[in-house]
Design a protein that fits this description.
The complex is a heterotrimer of chains A (about 120), B (about 600) and C (about 160). With about 120 residues, chain A is α+β, with helices and mostly antiparallel strands. Chain A has four helices and four strands. Chain A has helices at about 5-15, 35-40, 45-55, 95-110; strands at about 30-35, 60-65, 80, 85-90. Chain A has a four-stranded mixed beta sheet with strand order 2-1-3-4. Chain A is elongated. The termini of chain A are far apart. Helices cover about 40% and strands about 15% of the residues of chain B. Chain B contains 23 helices and 19 strands. Chain B is α/β, with parallel strands linked by helices. In chain B, the strands form six sheets. Chain B has a five-stranded mixed beta sheet with strand order 12-11-15-13-14, with helices on both faces. With about 160 residues, chain C is α+β, with helices and mostly antiparallel strands. In chain C, helix 1 (about 5-20) packs parallel to helix 3 (about 40-50), helix 2 (about 25-35) packs antiparallel against helix 3 (about 40-50) and helix 3 crosses helix 4 (about 55-65). The chains are: A alpha+beta (about 120), B alpha/beta (about 600), C alpha+beta (about 160). Chains in contact: A-B, B-C. Chains A and B meet through helix 1, helix 2, helix 3 and strand 2 of A and strand 1, helix 4 and helix 5 of B.
Chain lengths: ~120, ~600, ~160
């Protein structure tokens, strides 16, 4: 490369490929509960869709997974934690809902009440 | 789209543990599970907990797996990567209330601050793009496009960065001297000879983040007006040499080494020169002679290398770790660096923690962190319930510090004032089973071997010191021996040509001062309290406790034990006994005592 | 002096030619010869002396100064025992003596049948695995692998001395 501009372009391109190893802060943590129950209910597709969309739309969120401890019957479960530590858990998430959660919650900071896991479930 | 990135430590220690095989097995199992588009596996540099390697880090989970073997991988892939359940028994992370805690909060990492090591354990050192992703070569770009040479030197001066190789000389000052020379041809050298036994900080930086050194050398060259550099690296570091070769090639391919870098008109390139097994070549004038193709013998100073160095031209020589800090100082500013550590010792220091310590490995802490914090909080203290005795810093040029010094904040001047020194960063912990006289003897043995022979005080003086110490360990020492040791040490310190000789007596002086009673025991009582000096040990069978079973006699490799089975107590012939201790191990009845 | 192989002489010439125009060529040439031939034959010292205009005594002085350059060929199996501080305090001296005994090879020498060389090495920087011993390219962290190491050495002895 011959210019600083080229260096910066390479930097951006390379950062894209290793986001999860960079220590930038995140606005949201998105945790998909896996485990046998989760996977059986289709959590993997939800996980993959979330990973894909967050990357595509350049949302400042980290998508990760978690081993399910209790079986609630409401799988797939997706937990969203914001930078202050507040968290909500969405239940019975499918791929379409995942896209909605991204659009409303992650991009517009609007919690979708009706999709939330209720107390006691 | 990748959602997990696995990095496997490929430093020397972990490579010995077959980390190469691990990478292959991970890739195989990941493919088997159909996850190859979601998960990638790469090599990385030192994560720090070398004693339990090979280590593997998983991002973004911030989980580090320890002592990973090929047999563990299938489980990790299925349980963790596929089902989201990290394999807890292999994790270094702590677990609280069923939740896996962030590794950065573990007792090993919590007090560390990784600046020189910032990319180690994160990036693949053989991929320049990953270095670039982490702001690599931005500092060089900034320097070449917007800073004058003097501005660069001023920043380094203001940062307070002192040489990390042991000398602690302000890096900025060195650069200023070389900059001020009127010569057209100048050179920059990286001292990667890391000869202190027990030190592997520089090796880890070169294996895990080689570009940080290349970039810094280019910046230094610009600042002083040089266009060529040498990295002098010891031949005992083949992996580091190979990583550097790859990095240099990639830097050249990307136009970051060579002519007209970033179109600024500045040319810079460098080459590797290998050491060949001579500790003294870590001394800068000896290093220069070695590059020039001669015996690596130190030269009188002045002239200093900054005035007349390699090929007789102005040269700056800086240590690997010193260079590893430069890019961040340029990018984040001298004030940022100076705000870390203490006013006289700014920034951080990387230590290689070894010896009798639970967590052996590499740690980087802000200056001002106490020895207690490093040894106990981070290092985990002495294993096997043994009592801490001393910590040796500064290698063969340094001294010991004891329990009473544990709350000393780490810093160049603080350690000097206590009779030791920072050195390059080797920190060896000793426990109750180490004999301090023997430790001094060990260091002198090393020095005698490594003395270049040029000046009499070192060539002959250190040999005499060694002989005096040896006589003490054999029970032949007297009070006069101690007086001679003290006297001779002072003469050698005052009259040796170079740092090797001048600091050779330090371990002797330090142990004599802090462990006088141990020396006395060897001299007056002819005993070695720690049970190390063989000539002073005796193994005695207690006739009351002896069950006459003969097991000890069977084990004895020299047939020194005799007795009658079932009839008379067994006895050890002290003349024949080689003090190996096998009889003690063989006896089920604790009838044999070591005195 | 034992007669040197013809192909060694050819290599020595090539190596000397490759480096002779570089600044400070002597060590570059010595490294290459040591790496390829496993030692530095007197013929190499002569060739280097010729090409760099320095006396053979001067070159010999450089060779003997550095512990990595040897003028004697190494044994078939090279054992390196690290005597760096961390390894030493964890018992590497004892292991060194044990290996010397087992192989009949003097420390920092070669056994008389040329089967083994034992080097007491400087710190190799793998202190997390102390005490560290290498046999050719295999490295053993002897905290856990001492028995494995002993087995390997015994196997070599059996193969070459007992059977071979």
């Amino acid at each position: 490369m011959k210019t600083v501009e080229e260096l910066n372009q390479l930097r951006t391109k390379a950062r894209n490929k290793m986001e999860m190893r960079l220590d930038d802060g995140h606005d949201y943590f998105v945790v998909v509960a896996m485990g046998t129950a989760g996977i059986a209910a289709g959590a993997r597709n939800v996980l993959l869709k979330l990973v894909e969309k967050v990357h595509e739309l350049k949302i400042n969120a980290l998508v990760t997974q978690d081993g399910q401890i209790e079986v609630t019957g409401q799988e797939p479960l997706v937990k969203i934690v914001d930078s202050t530590g507040n968290q909500v858990i969405y239940k019975k998430v499918d791929v379409a809902m995942a896209e909605e959660i991204i659009a409303k919650h992650l991009q517009n900071n609007q919690v979708i009440e009706e999709y939330l896991l209720q107390e006691g479930q | 789209m990748e959602r997990i990135q696995v990095v496997v430590c490929a430093g020397t220690g972990c490579t010995i543990g077959n980390s190469g095989e691990l990478i292959e097995k991970f890739k195989e199992e990941i493919k088997h599970a159909g996850l190859e588009n979601e998960i990638s596996v790469k090599k990385t540099g030192c994560l720090g907990l070398c004693g339990v390697g090979p280590n593997v880090a998983v991002y973004p989970d911030n989980i580090i797996y320890k002592t990973v073997s090929v047999d563990d991988i299938k489980e990790i892939v299925t349980e963790h990567f596929l089902k989201g359940r990290p394999v807890q028994r292999k994790m270094l992370n702590d677990v609280k209330d069923g939740k896996v805690l962030d590794i950065n909060h573990s007792s090993f990492y919590a007090k560390q601050k990784r600046i020189a090591l910032n990319n180690c354990g994160v990036i693949d050192p053989e991929n320049i793009e990953e270095y670039i992703a982490k702001d690599g070569y931005q500092a060089l770009a900034k320097v070449l496009t917007s800073m004058s040479k003097q501005e660069v030197i001023d920043e380094v001066l203001a940062s307070g960065l002192r040489g990390r190789g042991g000398g602690g000389f302000p890096a900025g000052k060195k650069w200023q001297f070389a900059h001020d020379q009127q010569e057209k041809q100048k050179y920059v050298i990286c001292n990667a000879d890391e000869g202190d036994p027990g030190a592997f900080m520089d090796r880890s930086i070169l294996e895990g983040n080689p570009h940080s050194v290349i970039e810094a050398m280019a910046i230094a060259a610009y600042a002083i007006g040089a266009n060529y550099g040498y990295i002098y690296i010891r031949a005992e570091y083949p992996i580091a040499v190979q990583r550097l070769e790859v990095a240099i090639d990639q830097a050249r391919e990307h136009g970051l080494l060579g002519d007209d870098i970033f179109g600024s008109g500045f040319d810079f390139d460098l080459e590797i020169r290998l050491g060949a097994g001579a500790f003294v070549c870590g001394e800068e004038t000896a290093l220069i002679r070695s590059i020039e193709g001669h015996r690596g013998m130190p030269q009188p100073k002045p002239p200093f290398p900054a005035v007349s160095g390699v090929w007789g031209k102005p040269t700056i020589i800086n240590n690997v770790e010193t260079y590893a800090n430069i890019a961040q100082i340029i990018l984040k500013g001298s004030a940022w660096f100076a705000s870390i550590g203490t006013p006289a010792s700014t920034g951080t220091k990387v230590f290689a923690l070894g010896g009798k310590i639970k967590n052996t490995g590499l740690v980087e802490v802000p200056m001002g962190t106490t020895l207690r914090e490093v040894i106990y909080d981070i290092g985990g203290g002495c294993p096997n319930g043994k009592e801490f005795k001393a910590v040796q810093t500064g290698g063969p040029s340094g001294g010991c510090l004891t329990k009473e010094h544990l709350d000393t904040p780490i810093g160049f001047d603080e350690l000097l004032s206590l009779g030791s020194m920072m050195g390059s960063g080797g920190m060896i912990v000793l426990d109750e089973d180490n004999c301090m006289v023997d430790v001094a003897r060990f260091y002198l043995d090393f020095i005698v071997d490594e003395s270049c022979g040029k000046c009499t005080p070192c060539r002959i003086g250190t040999k005499r010191l060694y002989e005096l110490l040896e006589s003490i360990t054999k029970g032949e020492g007297t009070q006069e021996t101690i007086d001679e040791l003290l006297n001779l040490s002072q003469v050698i310190k005052d009259t040796s040509l170079c740092g090797l000789g001048q600091t050779a007596p330090n371990p002797v002086l330090s142990t004599l001062r802090l462990f006088a009673d141990e020396y006395q025991a060897h001299i007056e009582d002819k005993k070695c309290p720690a049970g190390v000096c063989k000539e002073l040990l005796s193994y005695i069978i207690d006739p009351e406790l002896c069950r006459k079973c003969g097991l000890c006699a069977k084990q004895c490799p020299v047939g020194a034990i005799s007795g009658e089975l079932g009839k008379t107590a067994f006895v050890i012939d002290q003349e024949k006994c080689i003090k190996c201790g096998q009889c003690v191990k063989a006896c089920h009845f604790k009838a044999i005592e070591r005195r | 002096m034992k007669k040197i192989k013809e192909e060694y002489l050819v290599r020595i010439d090539e190596i000397v030619k490759m480096h002779q125009d570089k600044p400070g060529p002597v060590k570059l040439m010595l490294h290459e010869v040591q790496k390829e031939l496993g030692y530095i034959p007197f013929e190499a010292i002569e060739a280097i002396s010729e090409a760099t205009n320095r006396s053979a005594a001067d070159i010999y002085g450089v060779v003997t100064f550095y512990s990595q350059f040897t003028t004697e060929p190494k044994g078939k199996h090279v054992i390196g025992v690290c005597l760096g501080t961390a390894c030493y305090v964890n018992g590497s001296q004892t292991i060194l003596e044990l290996l010397s005994e087992m192989t009949g090879c003097p420390v920092n020498g070669t056994s008389s049948d040329g089967l083994f060389s034992i080097d007491a090495t400087r710190c190799v920087g793998a202190c997390g695995l102390a005490p560290v011993v290498s046999v050719d390219d295999t490295v053993f962290g002897c905290q856990k692998q001492l028995e494995e190491l002993k087995m390997l050495v015994l196997n070599y002895i059996k193969e070459e001395r007992v059977n071979g």
